[in-house]
Structures are given as C-alpha cells and as structure tokens.
Amino acid sequence: MGPGHQGGQHQGGLMASEILVERGDGATAVVTINRPHRRNACDFAAWTDLKTAFEQLGADPAVKLVVLTGAGGHFCAGDDIVAFAPVRDNTAQADVWRARIQECYAAVQSMPKPVIAALQGVCVGGGCSLAMCCDFRVADGSARVGVPVAKLGLVYPTIQLQRLAWLIGASNARRWLYEAGIYDSDECERVGFIDRRTDGNVVAAALEFGREMALAAPLSIAGAKAQLNAVLAGQVEQRRAELDAMVRRADESDDFREAMRAFREKRPPRFQGR
Questions:
Q1: How far apart are alpha carbons 113 and 59 in whole angstroms?
Q2: Quick one: DSSP state of residue 234?
Q3: Coil, strand or helix: which one is 11?
Q4: Counting Cβ atoms within 10 Å, is residue 112 exposed (0-12), middle (13-18) or buried (19+)?
C-alpha cells in the first residue's frame, strides 16, 4: 500500500474503489472518477486504481473504446493536495506519489484503444494533464480548463508541458501558463484543446464521437496510436523495432483477411483484433 493510501469505505475487508468502471454494449467502457467531495481530485488510491483500470481495459480484447469522466459535474481537479500534504516533506514517499501519477498518465496515453475525455466543470492542473493524455476531449459549456501553476509558485512538469504544446501550440501554451488562467469552453475550442462541444449529456456525446472508432480494426488503432505517440515524443527511432512489428502484425492479421472478404462481399467487416 502506497503513501497516504486512502480508498473508500471497507466492504468485506476490501477498500471500495473511487474509480468506477461501467461496461456499455460490450465494446465500450466508461471510467468515472467518483470523488465529487474533492471535485474529483485524486489521492494516491485513486491514481492507483485509475492506472489499474486503464491497464485492465487495455488488455481486454472486447473493449474497443473508453470514455473517461468525473462524477458530480466536474472532470478532475488534479492531485488532492490535502491528501498529499502528510507526505510532501518526506522525499521518498513524495517521489512514490508523484511517480504513481506519471504511471497513471502513461497508462491512459499508451492504452492501445481510443480514449475520450468527457469534460464538464473543473478540469485543472493534473486534471488538465489527465485530459491531455486522452486521444480526444468532448466538453459541455460548463467546462473550465487551466494549469495555474504560476499562481502556486510551481513549474509545470516538462512532459505535461510537452503535451500541452502539442495540443494547443507553443504560443497558446505560453499564454495559458504565463496568465495562469482558467479558460471556458469557448477558449478551449478556439485553441483546439477540445474536439467537440455539446449542449447535452457529455458522456453520451463522447460515446457518439467515438462510435465509428469502436468499429475500426483494433490492430490498426493500436498501431496508429503507438506511431503517433512515438512521433510526438520524438521516439520513432528508439521504438522503430516495436512499431515495425506492429505494421507486420497487421499485414499478417486475420482482420486484414476479413477486411478483404468483406470488401468482396460488400458487407461491413467484423474485426476481432487478431
């Protein structure tokens, strides 16, 4: 058990997770951060359980699309600084905590399936970082996004800054960080932080946004996502063997043969991810 591990209430000797996973039609899953009392700011247990949820869903061949959201009208207020406070001055424990956050981000970003953040309310600090680890972001008009580290006397971690600059461009990233503002959904749409606005249910809108993606060939999605992540991180040469292997696997896959049959028979393909 990690530093400051604080899960939910004990149920039958187990800690009740505050990360909820709801399976939809079998091909989709909705992951909800259920800590509305903290505007879904995550403590060590929540970061751990969120990481585990994405690792498990990523390994499940039945899941083709994941939506990440928060309970109670907010996405995520980042790291729970109240829960972190007792370990902040213990360098070893604080490093374990921070490493777990980065592991959680990595589990979301590297998941070999489309991940869509469904944003409403607060999406700040580490919550903004979490949203950027998703492939896409769908938001309603209540969304408020920002990384106000300059009002806290902190410096944004470089890997998060890299993601922000990829997403909204260096000039907008500079302005967001220097102003340390909280930006509404109009601004977020203007700079490209969000991919779609909705006036309705944001989770339903996110599922609809990803509907066609869930029908695509899983090996193609996994390969394209790995390639894009490598390109953006400047790791293409470092990961060349892995990426080339993914291309070969798709070329030799049952799904490729199924796509050829479906084309000849003029029907939609039925992909199995193998």
A1: 10
A2: T
A3: strand
A4: middle
d(CA 33, CA 21): 9
E strand map for the chain: 10-11, 14-15, 19-23, 28-33, 65-70, 115-119, 122-124, 136-140, 144-146, 183-184, 196-198
Q: Are strands 136-140 and 196-198 parallel, antiparallel or unpaired?
A: parallel
pLDDT bin (cut points 50, 70, 90) of residue 13 is very low
Residues 6+ apart with CB under 8 A from 248: none
Enumerate the domain spans of the chain.
10-214, 216-265
Sign of the dihedral through C-alpha 254, 259, 264, 266: positive
CATH 3.20.20.70 fits 10-214, yes or no: no
Cα separation, 244 vs 226, in Å, equals 11
Counts of helices then strands in the chain (DSSP H, E): 11, 11
Structure tokens at 146: 């920002």
Query: What is the Cα–Cα distance from 199 to 214, expressed in whole angstroms?
Result: 23
Helix axis angle, 218-233 to 254-265, nearest 10°: 120
**What's the pTM?**
0.92
**What tens digit of pLDDT does each residue of 19-51 get?**
999 998 779 999 999 999 999 999 999 999 999
Sign of torsion over alpha carbons 19, 117, 136, 103? negative
